[in-house]
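User: For my dataset I need records formatted as: sequence, then structure tokens, nothing else. Please produce one.
Assistant:
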Amino acid sequence: MSRFCYIKFASAVLLLLAAFSTCPAKEEERSRPTGQLKRFTFVEAHMGTHFKIILYAKDRATAEQAAKAAFARIAQLDGIMSHYRLTSELMQLCLKSDDKPVKVSSDLFAVLWQAQKMAEQSNGAFDVTIGPVVRLWRRCRLKNKLPTPQELAQARSLVGFRNLVLDPKHQTVQLKQPGMRLDLGGIGKGFAADKAIETLARLGVDRALVSAGGDIVVSKPPPDSDGWRIGIAPLEDPDARPERFIFLADAAIATSGDAERYVEIDGIRYSHIVDPRTGLGLVGRISATVIAPDGTTADALATTLNILGEKGLPLIEKTPGASGLIHRKVDNKDVLIKSKRFPDH
């Protein structure tokens, strides 16, 4: 391998050769060409994180046109899937639905369809109807106070993926219980990264990487390389140099965990990841890394593997092209558990 691209990959943090710029749209170019192609890097803020696009193109004009189109696609999806904006299609669906089918866009239907597949396969460990519980925990993190049993019971009563009904023939969504709220935080960024890669490919850019916080989707590798070199950061210190590296091409990887987002209440550390079956934030140090053919699958599986732990490995094994790594902290010792297909570093 004569050339490689090194990526440091952690839950919700990704550093690629240098730290992310705080500017919403910064572009830099490697001055030295690789064969007939040059490497370009673009960064914009979307979906509460920084999306970074690295691509190889013959010239700056081609690169800028492709990146602009990819970011526009990401922004479009943000306007559809956001659970923060009341004007998003997702939130309008939640506000308008009164146990009647609602026609939705093809993008929203597609991501919900994938989410429901994961909910079925995980027996509810992954569940995008978790919105009421997530909102409750978000308030609790701000107040540094656990929810009361009554608050938790009320929020949990609105959670249940079987109350989300999809009709593929008419492309409609039905929320069968009043007050339900959907949250695509465990799948949306992977879906957006997939669509960005598709947009770049349609414009003739087929050697690219799109990263979004803890999610990466790549197409063909850099010229003169077998793959994009990705480093998985340590559980305790996401800023430390990775000790594990893998190479990816035409695939996706996602890491989910509590390295960056958590709250300590009464001496107990609670992750921002909430188990929809209990309504409680996860406790105990854990992160999960999943490799899959696409970002949507990798994103959803990484969230699911956090919740299920080792019990989620059979789901990883039966998902075509998927593999996973669980990193736990037990008695102050690192415990690594890999699925059969996860590559050696």
